[in-house]
Amino acid sequence: MAVHKLVLDDVFDEVLCTLIAIHCSLEDYRLAYLLNKHLGITLIRKPSDLDYDKGKSTYSIFDWEDDKQLITWSFVSNVCKTESFQQINYESLFENQEKITKTTHLIPEYKRVNYFLKIDNEFNLSKEKYIVNSILRIPQIATAYSIDSSQLKSKDNLIFS
């Protein structure tokens, strides 16, 4: 009986995408509006947030599928803050609870980044610079820059589907 071997090296190549980090203190919906206005796109919030660790950390996500150029744009928050109460036992008559705020990040390597704009298409350098410069023209944004997604340790967190 003949043995057939399938070689799938080319099938599972890394997905090419452009990743832009955005430093901004605005809420996600306001920044999505400004990105829509300045980039000429139509980001819409998804009905459900990205859920990691079974609800322990959720990240807001907006996306837009450009049917003309077959490109998907995703705008996602990098920061998740959760509040919990911790019981403190002192030798007293009253129970004390302390509020604890825990911060988690979608991409832990970039803890100071507030948002990421992921474009599921590898643009040439001039188009990528044009997008970053358009984002930098928004007065409320402190800074924005491109990130090489192939160098990230937690790049699996950027798979949104």
From TrEMBL:
Q: What is this protein called?
A: IPExxxVDY family protein
Q: Which organism does this sequence originate in?
A: Thalassobellus suaedae
Top-level taxonomy: Bacteria, Pseudomonadati, Bacteroidota, Flavobacteriia, Flavobacteriales
